[in-house]
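Supplementary Data S3. Sequence and structure tokens for construct A.
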Amino acid sequence: MKKNMKFPILVFDRGIDLIVLDYKFLMGDVRLINQAFRNVEVVDSLGNLYKIKNVIKDSGINLIESIKKVGLMVRLKPILEEDVTQINLIELQNKIVNYVSANPKKLKHLDDIQNLKETIYSTKNYEELIRIFN
């Protein structure tokens, strides 16, 4: 069953980075398609978990988004490793806290790490959790 991602989304980039995207659709710079969204996990605002193996270009250059984002932005179509599943909010909170604990220097600009963990655990829904990092 095909599901459309509900933005904002949270991208776990191979455990190296945590990225929030708040677009109307999945997009990226056409020059970076071979590097973007490879072997990543994406959680959308409804708690849907997408394990993306790769992406392919799904449309021509979007002029308005290219101007806004300063790049040659195109709509992307994800190639999934498996069907879309649901991730429990508590499981996602734990996953993010584990990331925060392993990468405190990357996130110290947001808040004291302990306060950040408490904020993560106090969220009531996926969108609220994702927007902490936006």
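Construct B, processed identically:
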Amino acid sequence: MPATPSCSYSGLFDIYAMDHQDLCHIYRPEGSQEPQYENLYDALRSDANTEKCTARISLPTAPYGRKFGTALAPVLCDPISERPYDIELTRISHVNQVFYREHERDCFVTRYNSDVSAAGKLPGVSGKTRVSPVGARDNGVLDSSGNFNLSRVWEKEAEDGKLMQIFEGHMSLRVRYRKDYERKGHGDGFDIGFAFWAIRTNDAG
């Protein structure tokens, strides 16, 4: 069922990067003509896939105005302390059609069909990412920036009346380190971007 503009994007989400090949095969089995969203939903809810969760994000209630969302991703961390950065999602807005740059679209799963992903065709929310300025210097961060997009791509009412939903999006973050981090051999920073599926955290098993 296609997403509708009335979809609420507030709340907590568990996001799963699309680089997990076993999830990719569940989503798009070889020989299948359509993505198997319900099977993917069940897999994402399974305790067996909890360790595959890439990040957890929180989005504020609309209207967004100047409200911030947050993201916590173990892979996006201080290279010295290995503590995940406190990432802020800023300038959040609802859009009629989420826009993805070409290199972002290339991150989405398009196995066996060049048009499997609904990326860039649906309404959703867009925003910017950054490491929280509070304590950023303690993490060696000189500056940071990135983008965040999220759309609902599938929904179905379960037998018990509960609404099952899968979301799809892309998140990126570029971090530039302070010189003392460079001198310690950590380079000048990193630039990471990944496409993902997401379910609401309270749907997780």
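The first strand starts at residue 11 and ends at 17. The chain has one domain: 11-203.
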